[in-house]
Design goal:
This protein has 307 residues and is of the alpha+beta class. It has five helices and twelve strands.
């Protein structure tokens, strides 16, 4: 992918590239390899590692069972430009449920541990005690990249951060609020963003696993930044140092990741150098598709001593 913000990459090429990135290569019965980000630089995006590990776990499960939850811990920051090895373990195989572990490693060192649970679809009692927030539809909002260009030109940010901020993304986002990099004033720790892939994905009936993997990938966007909102600080302006510590997702129903989904995030607590964040993902019909929780390290960046 080019770092030239004046170019407009083909949306379908970006989406096809994401599918390739999240499609792991089988190296053994329970071992897989994840591709590296094309033209990547810096630290591996956490959503990429989660999605690849989920794909590795999904590839070991048969009998029509689908992932309904995952819990992951980030151990080390990953390096872009290096393939990621995923070793899986088949901890449980029942008639209705199955459980898998996946360890993602680079250069022989683990960077993420993930446990995922799978269930054979079945009918059951159903309720949803969570109404979809009443926000502007995506068609009425500016694109995420348009906003990124505006704030990158307006703000004073390091060149490397600018490159990361303006790198073309396979996930299109449109926010109804001011995210941490858009705002320097303390505000309520809540945000609402629509997201979908820039292009189309294979039909969900043909490959439901890739739609879950893309949702897992996108769930790492905007989440940790929610806990920065009450403090009026941002990683993009070089004011914070942060990293995801853990990440959990519960998949409630199938949903297309190439159609608009609303990501409503809130952060009920921050302290002790950490921020806790939650997310709810809805489809256009108001159905709760998935729930997310994450805690991350969040520290004010220390100024370099003068002189």
């Amino acid at each position: 992918m080019s770092d030239n913000s004046d170019e407009t990459p083909d949306p379908q090429q970006l989406t096809d590239g994401l599918v390739r990135l999240l499609t792991v290569e089988r190296k053994g019965e329970d071992s897989f390899r994840g591709r590296q980000q094309k033209d990547g630089f810096g630290r591996v995006f956490g959503g990429q590692v989660i999605a690849q590990a989920l794909q590795a776990a999904q590839a070991t499960v048969g009998d029509g069972k689908h992932a309904h939850s995952l819990h992951a811990y980030f151990l080390r920051g990953g390096e872009e430009g290096v393939d990621i090895d995923h070793a899986t373990a088949r901890d449980f195989e029942g008639r209705s449920f199955a459980n898998r572990r996946a360890v993602a490693s680079q250069n022989g060192k683990p960077i993420l541990n993930l446990t995922a649970s799978f269930q054979r679809p079945e009918e059951g009692m159903a309720h949803q005690d969570s109404a979809m927030p009443d926000v502007a539809p995506p068609e009425d909002l500016k694109s995420d990249m348009e906003m990124r260009r505006y704030f990158a030109d307006k703000g004073n940010m390091p060149e490397e951060t600018r490159k990361i901020m303006l790198r073309p993304r396979p996930i299109e986002m449109r926010t109804t609020d001011k995210l941490h990099w858009m705002n320097a004033e303390p505000k309520e720790p809540r945000a609402h963003s629509w997201f979908k892939t820039a292009g189309t994905l294979p039909p969900i009936a043909d490959d439901p696993a890739i739609h879950r993997a893309v949702i897992a990938y996108a769930s790492d966007y905007t989440l940790l930044g929610t806990s920065a909102l009450p403090h009026g600080l941002s990683w993009m302006r070089g004011e914070l140092v942060g990293a995801s510590l853990d990440h959990a997702i519960w998949f409630h129903r199938e949903a297309r990741a190439d159609e608009w989904l609303l990501y409503a995030t809130d952060a009920p607590w921050s302290g002790s150098g950490r921020g806790f964040n939650r997310g709810r993902i809805f489809d256009r019909d108001g159905n709760l598709v998935a729930s997310v929780a994450q805690e991350g390290m969040m520290r004010r960046r220390k100024k370099a001593p003068e002189g």
